[in-house]
């Protein structure tokens, strides 16, 4: 009975915490269905009196807000970063886990240590490098940085440590090349880690604001978070339009997260099982 009561208390605590976390999102959706006077009334109402989709129609037909263009920019950057980060992290993480070479441990911990460097420290050098390469105001400038992902290398390396060495040795005895071993044996077993890394990379890049704001200077090259901030500034007295635009921006990332949350939890849990 004591154990049952403890579980019940934990479930109640998690349920209350979940409701508190979801409340702002629920209010945002409900506010996007209200009219201007209703969303500004005092005291404020939680449920819309007469739900309407006029706010979404206004945004989707606004010629100053071509959402398809900004969706395309964000999708190109996010998907390209996912492909690059997953590919390089899978290869480097596997190498650090299953190969021995001089300085391996020191190099690995140096890579891990780079995760502790604040973005503000590398922001100016990164901008100067992109300027020298002529990548300012180009989507490519926001993609090449994923060629090296310290967190991804760490995550994949932790997973790769759990791959039995005997399995790899048996493949070598059968005459398989190292590339064939990586592609046919190691890569399928790294699925949870790569799925976790891919989804987290997608969310990070979809929601990125400061770095794209610095690199992309033209309006038609910018991404959804930047445009959302610009739109909310232009319509600061029309909260219902800002809420509707916010819903349209977060729908893709919310959908991706709901589909892959179990992979993310599993990946973050298993990454700490091997040292």
Notable traits:
275 residues; mainly alpha; 13 helices; 72% helix
Could you please describe the fold and organization of this structure?
This protein is mainly alpha-helical and about 280 residues long. It is about 70% helix and about 0% strand. It contains 13 helices and no strands. The radius of gyration is 23 Å and the shape is globular. About 25% of the residues are buried. The model has no long low-confidence stretch (mean pLDDT about 85).
- Helical percent range? over 70%
Judged by helices, strands and strand pairing, the structural class is: mainly alpha
Number of helices: 13
Distance between the termini: 38 Å
Radius of gyration: 23 Å
N-to-C order of helices and strands: HHHHHHHHHHHHH
Mean pLDDT: 85
Approximate strand percentage: under 5%
Number of strands: 0
Taking pLDDT < 50 over at least 5 consecutive residues as the criterion, the unreliable ranges are none
Shape: globular
Task: Please give the largest β-sheet.
Answer: none
């Amino acid at each position: 009975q004591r154990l049952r009561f403890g579980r019940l208390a934990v479930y109640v605590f998690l349920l209350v915490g979940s409701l508190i976390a979801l409340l702002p999102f629920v209010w945002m959706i409900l506010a996007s269905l209200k009219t201007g006077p209703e969303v500004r009334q005092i005291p404020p109402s939680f449920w819309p009196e007469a739900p309407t989709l006029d706010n979404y129609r206004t945004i989707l037909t606004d010629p100053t807000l071509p959402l398809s263009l900004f969706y395309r920019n964000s999708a190109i950057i996010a998907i390209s970063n996912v492909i690059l980060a997953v590919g390089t992290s899978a290869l480097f993480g596997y190498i650090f886990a299953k190969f021995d070479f001089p300085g391996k441990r020191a190099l690995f911990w140096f890579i891990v240590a780079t995760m502790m460097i604040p973005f503000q420290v590398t922001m100016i050098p990164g901008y100067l490098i992109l300027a020298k390469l002529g990548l300012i105001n180009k989507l490519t400038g926001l993609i090449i940085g994923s060629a090296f992902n310290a967190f991804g290398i760490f995550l994949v390396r932790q997973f790769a440590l759990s791959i039995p060495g005997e399995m790899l040795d048996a493949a070598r005895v059968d005459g398989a090349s190292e590339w064939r071993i990586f592609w046919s044996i190691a890569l399928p077993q790294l699925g949870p880690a790569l799925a976790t890394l891919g989804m987290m990379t997608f969310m990070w890049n979809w929601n990125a604001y400061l770095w794209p704001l610095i690199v992309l200077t033209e309006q038609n090259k910018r991404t959804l978070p930047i445009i959302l901030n610009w739109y909310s500034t232009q319509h600061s007295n029309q909260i219902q339009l800002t809420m509707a635009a916010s819903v349209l921006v977060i729908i893709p990332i919310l959908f991706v997260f709901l589909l892959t949350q179990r992979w993310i939890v599993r990946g973050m849990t298993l990454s700490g099982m091997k040292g």
